[in-house]
């Protein structure tokens, strides 16, 4: 791999640039205070995180709708904690969560500095499975929207990563050659394997530091990108 041939850098957004875990925890803290939900946020998140992960896997495979994801992940979490919440309460919390999530816009460590450096050398792009109406707001509110030449969402593409059609759409929009492009993301299946199968180079951001054996370039911090790009 000749890294000096790269011209286009594609990023996933959540968990890759945008600090989803931190921003999500802050959103739940605010919601629980407002709605007087007497549950420790830390205890809730222990239960919620794996449930949310499973719902996103189902969403990627079209097993659940966006609405079912937003409702189901909260319903199952409260049920697991044996906390009684009405459907009306859960729907209110689901709406408030999106609202408060966008009020917190922390990036992963060194995110802005890395984007500032890379944007001077490459054309930067986003490919995300996140919801259309939310992802643009995240980038705008966190002050990184201007770094990106194109943004491709799964709702726009009609399919979700790792489906090849979303990578095809992103490359077409950006007029990028896959052989001169690299995809950076935290999800091994959706971001890395999906992009690799479509012919892009890849860098796996292992934010959970799982240290699993992979055939791809693996980093644990965004700043390590500068060793390659």
TrEMBL record:
The lineage of its organism: Bacteria, Pseudomonadati, Bacteroidota, Flavobacteriia, Flavobacteriales. This is Noncanonical pyrimidine nucleotidase, YjjG family. Gene3D superfamilies: HAD superfamily/HAD-like, Putative phosphatase, domain 2. Pfam families: HAD_2. It comes from the Bacteria. InterPro entries: HAD-like_sf (IPR036412), HAD-SF_hydro_IA (IPR006439), HAD-SF_hydro_IA_YjjG/PynA (IPR011951), HAD_2 (IPR041492), HAD_sf (IPR023214), PGP-like_dom2 (IPR023198), Pyrimidine_5'-ntase_YjjG (IPR052550). GO terms for molecular function: 5'-nucleotidase activity.
């Amino acid at each position: 791999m000749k890294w000096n041939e790269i011209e286009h850098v594609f990023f996933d957004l959540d968990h890759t640039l945008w600090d989803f875990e931190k921003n999500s925890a802050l959103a739940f803290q605010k919601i629980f205070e407002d709605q007087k939900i007497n549950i420790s946020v830390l205890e809730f998140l222990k239960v919620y995180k794996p449930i949310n992960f499973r719902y996103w896997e189902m969403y990627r495979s079209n097993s659940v709708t966006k609405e079912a994801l937003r409702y189901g992940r909260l319903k199952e979490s409260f049920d697991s904690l044996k906390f009684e919440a009405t459907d009306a309460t859960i729907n209110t919390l689901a709406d408030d969560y999106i609202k408060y999530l966008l009020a917190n816009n922390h990036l992963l460590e060194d995110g802005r500095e890395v984007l500032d450096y890379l944007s001077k050398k490459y054309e930067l792009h986003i490919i995300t499975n996140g919801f259309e109406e939310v992802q643009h707001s995240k980038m705008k509110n966190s002050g990184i929207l201007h770094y990106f030449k194109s943004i491709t969402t799964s709702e726009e593409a009609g399919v979700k990563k790792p489906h090849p059609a979303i990578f095809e759409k992103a490359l077409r929009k950006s007029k990028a050659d896959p052989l001169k492009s690299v995809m950076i993301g935290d999800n091994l299946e959706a971001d890395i394997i999906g992009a690799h199968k479509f012919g892009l180079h890849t860098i796996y951001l292992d934010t959970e530091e799982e240290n699993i054996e992979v055939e791809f370039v693996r980093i644990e911090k965004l700043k390590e990108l500068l060793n390659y790009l």
